[in-house]
Fold each of these.
Amino acid sequence: MNLRKTAFAFAALLLCGAGSAAPTTLATLTLGTNTAGMGVDPAVGTVYVSNYDSGTLSIINIDPPAIAATFQIGQNPRRLISNAATSRVYVVNDTTPGQLTVFNGKDFGIVSTIPVGDRPRTLAADFLNNEIYVSNSASNTISVVDTRSNTVVATARVGAGPSGPSVNHKLGKIYVASATDNTVSVVDQRTRVVKTIPVGRTPASTYVSERTGLVYVNNVADKTVSVIDSATDVVVKTLPVGAGNESNFITGSGVFRRAYVPNALDNTLTIIDGDAVAVVKTVPVGARPIHAVADGDGGDVYVVNQGDNTVTVINGQTETVTGTFLAGGGPWRATIALGRLLVLNQNGNAADSMTVASTQNTLAGSAVATEFYHAGFDHYFHSASDIETRLLQDGLFGNAWNYTYVFWRVWTADGPDRLPVCRLFSAKFAPKSSHFFTPYAEECAKLQAGTDWQYEGTVYAMALPDATGRCAVGTVPLYRLYNDGMGEAPNHRYTPDRTIRGDMVTARWIAEGSGTDIVFACTPTLKGN
């Protein structure tokens, strides 16, 4: 696996990280009428927005923000999803019969139109398995689309009026809420067998936490969230939340280990702890909140308030409101991409728009490292690059590299008591290629001088513990383990989790570091101090 090109690009982004400041509007871009979906391809710095009434797809450059092009994309384009690894955009056309339109984000053209069920409204993807799942609201079915052949390979009958699917890739299951009959349908990705789980009244959306295997279902009429154990497909808890409506989307953050429920009717955000599986806080926000998005790198959560044209900014660590940002008229969806906050505004009878703003960046000068695992190689890899992470998530190397859902924070530049970390790549042990990370300049230079390792640049920074293995106040230990060449190819694993370190040592990996705890490095705390 060689991600050398993105390593250099991301290193430049890291070293230009901005300090913490309130979001500032950088541009307001006019779109089509009745925006219905938004997707981001960070690899090319592009946002795609579907315009339902206009029948168009707006293609937007993130930096500098500008409309790059507008394309006809078929009647009633609704939700969409993009694949950064293939530069494909998938748009559902909400018609009878319905279709899924495949758009080429590189060459700007329609690749295929795929017939699906009636009135398809939403979709989800498992790009590692080359599949897209389209919910057909009038047919009460899920169309399973193979992205290699661009054909429907299966149709599964689910509950009435199905909403957006969610996927548990680890267990191979698709979850679809039905607000009409108060159920969640579970579709087995391999067999296509469907189970039905009764939940609360009017389930509007679902969120799958693959780290814990729990599925959260937002039941807006009951003011509850049903929690499903995806190993058994049984409701294991019912949590009270605020009063919302069917426009509210439950979302989550693996970094913060939280689920977020906007409550449009009582102007609050309910925060659920994913470890305790309990409501930990209810935060007053703006008028009619309908969407929340977490920025793991910046350390903040943004809540879109449609009723007063604002976005509430919440500190992800303290879970308190730190500011309010004015968006356009009737904001309804937001996302974070390449350090930018992107907000879609419905603007009443006027054309819709996108507000492009800077992020709050409460945890300035840091980023989140995400770990992946290759079962065939028994190798680990991590990256603090949003671009690299997304490319692996979208199947750049097929189903080889999978999330472990282990994260830690790194500094984006060196400074006092911090060392730059150089990254190297070797294909000598092919097919088991490997990356190596080191904060030691001499070690980096020695490997560069040889012929086995290619230098990929400085990717982030870390601090070192003292001789006793202690980290400075405000930082936490990071452990490094070496496989001692098992499998005839070297590999190192880095982890902030002492239990994982112990398990790896039991599996005959060698701990490397200082002190009795064998600490390799010190990093910022994941959620901030």
Amino acid sequence: MEKFARLIDELGVPSSQEDQIQKVHAYLSHCDEESLNWSVHLLRGHPFKRLCSKKELVTLFINHIEFSEHIFEQCIDATGDILEAISLSYPKPGKAISIELAVILKEVELVRSNKEEIDHFIISSWQKLALTQRYYFNKIITSTFRSPVSSSVLCAALAQYLNQPLDATTYNFHYVQDKTPLRVSKLRSEIKDKHNVLPIPIIEPVENNLDLNSTTWENHFISYQWNGVRCQLLTHDNGHEIWSRRLELITDKFPEFNHISLPKNTILDGVIIAISNGKILPKSEVRKRIDRKRITKKDLEKLTMSFLAFDIMRSAGQDVTGLTLEERLVFLQNLFAEMSNTDRLQLAENLLDSEFLTIQEIWESAKTMNSRALIIKAKNDAYNTATHWIKYSAKAQTTCGVLLYARRGEGYRSNEFVELTLGARQGSNLIPFTKVIPNLEEEERLAIRAFIRENLIERFGPVYSVRASIIIKISFDGVEPSRRHKCGLKLKNPLFLSWEKDKSQEDVISLEELMNEIG
């Protein structure tokens, strides 16, 4: 537990991806097998079943050492984190005992069914563990631990540890779906079923606000940036797999594609879109499907999911990534011409070959397709990550909101407000509509912190409700409907711009105006 806590502290300090990989690799190299499995399980962000809630932990803490609730509230105010306040307020152990992470987590599983045993186990662990270890122990048992590293960093570290290629490690890492915990030994195996089909690193578009009318585009492929989830569709001897750009294996989330008739050992690059009444829905509808644990018949009937293919990387076992886009498109078109059932599988067309006469007309039509960008590809480019697809986007919109809530950070950022909730006008009321991360100069940061403390209305743990008078200017890429948010909408990519000191609530956008922006 000591080594794991030290690693998480080190990863919490901003550093390069290469530094993070080396830190994780060094840690993995000095772990026993069981602790290694549990560490990878936690670092990959897989769930750990909660042993007790934060509220139950606070009650246990206060009753056990007969601590004043009033003083404890002040401790929370000083740290900004309930679990850290418990860790620091509990008496220091006379001599901290080094306990392996696996030993602690195994014991958690043994005491789950008995409340008295749970309380005894938690208190006993507090008495043995040093302060930092105690803090991460609290986060794990309350299921609030969040991994400080990305899956790409963890895969790279595991590839070094296992001494095997990164692509094979990455494939097995995401293919093995063990929940408690992941067995690292399984990642040493050869690629699943030896079909030699791996997700290929995809090309990411690069922002470029060029002049559409200043260039000739005859030798380019132009398409909308489709409002969906970018994926690779792989076929092999045992069926097919769908991998998202985040390298999530999401095959089981889309049973609609179970009967596709693609040749074996084929890899298509494309996007999954959700369609209802002939209209392309926001990307969030596809993400909802991915986030569901179980896909029901009702889910399948509710929306039509379609895979829109715009490139091919492997065709019936032949690697075509070295060919030009123009040559790859011939493979793709021939593939679709031979397919008998393409209800769920569509081929993206070059918009320059459609009814549009100019690229400006294509751009003006994008909004009708729920798209705010065009993807422009050179026909003579091969498929590799050194290739640059151009993304031409609409300029971000700007608006103003009024500060309603501010959330404090944790750990070394406990004295900072790391998230601001802004409100929009609805009649005489102010309704929260988005959250942004503040990007302030030191003087403004201190001024807002002082304002929040002086104008506090109510506190909800680390969240402060304040008097509405600070006006914040933000930018955003668009507005989507959302049933998860009380305001009924969600801003795409909201970014903090500035503190508008010369503006008042009259300059704040109304909810009705935002609703009108929904495509």
Amino acid sequence: MLAAHQQPLVPPGGEWLAQAVCLWRPHADSRNRTLKSSLAPGEARLPDFLEQLARLSLASPDREDPARIREGLRTATGLPASALDRIESEMRAVASNLELKHVIAEHLAERLGDATPAAALSLLVELLGPAPLRVGDAMAIVTPSACYLGVRYESGELLEPDFATRPEDEQAAVRAWVRRVEAANSPMTDRFPAFGYFDRDAVSATLLAELEASVTRALGRVPRSVLLETLATMVQLTPTHQLGMYLVHDAWGHGWQETLCDFEWLYARTPHLEDPLEPGTGPFFAGEGSPTLGSAFVAEGERTVLRADRLHECIAADLRGRLATGANGALAELLADIADYELARMGFEAASSSLLPRHCVRLDLILEDLCRYAEMATAPVRALALDPRRRAELAEALAADGLPERGLAAAVDEAAAQLRDRWLPLVSPRLEDGVVVQRLACAMAALAVELDRGHPPVSGEPEDRPEPWVDLLTIALAWVYEQDRARHFWQLDVWLRDVVAPGVSRFAEALPTADARSPGDMA
């Protein structure tokens, strides 16, 4: 009888595993290996921290010989060489943006030069525009797929020892700049996995021209618009004292979600979660061809009436899309937590406000994220149902679209009453009584429990390296999720337990290498 890893997965079961492994291979090149850093020795423990990250990168088996990985895939999946060739080609296309990021990062590392404080400030100004900072106020770290800029600021103040002695007009300019930076420091971003302050129009034209030349030499011509949008996903300004947290959780934990998967497409919609319900509401979140809210109000002669069936069809589709966007963000955070867990196993804990810092998943923070996203996604429904001003604004917009004013206000009031009766009991953002947020929380908690089952809390002596297959596990889980987000999200714990973990275990055991470690109780 064949051992488990000798029993090939029957397509299409083997297809997803081969695809995930092909994405996992370039994962090593998207990590936080430092290309250049201007940090002073001992500053914020980060040099030691970066050394730990380098150890973590080198320890991973995704640096295995490609021939061994291909042979392991062939054994585990039973796919013929032609199918593996096709999958490898398709996944190279999926991850092709990583090559562009590498070229950009290499050029930024060159611009950082000898990584002096002056060079760090110069790079910050080229990327973010003029800043009233002095040499020594800024630092920079360039990784293969990101550029982290750091300034010591907090609560509107620059935390440099000499700041209070600077001229008053200089202090005022710095405070204004810091306030602008802090005001933009939100995870609601259209440039995931980066977030916070960035102005595309402020990027130095000279730097853009140089980047364009470097990219053309390495990859061929890339439109400047694509180059700029890629750069926007790479640059992040953070408080220097929090840099360690961002380096692991964001560049390591989130970086691959954009370069190897497509989390960014839904993430770009998060700034619009609270957009009000208007006549054109519908297709943006629900997809092209979905009904608009305006279609629920129709003219019958010289009077406007409500089509209740269309109203509920539109609300259901729009709300489903908004919640899927929020769930995508929460899942991205959950998967990024695993990067923190990997480092904790090596004895280095990244800064975190979680009460579960040594667990695979910070469930307390995930539930906070879910409640916040649910509140944003459901706020437009509650507003139209409860706020007379929103109803008046909708009626005014519908009249501007040409609907008869006679009966219009009554039709909008009737729609609000319908929302109160059918939807308000479902869309409370509180875990105590919100049906929707409770279901989201149950789905995420079930996944967290399943992840923790295979990856118990860190305790005891630090390990030389973390569980070697956890990166592949998270990438494979994300890849399965993205094949059908709306359906698979609700059963990710089942997918993990019954499909993803056994598939990763099968592949790990099939690798023809003497030092390959089995994932053990991961399945």
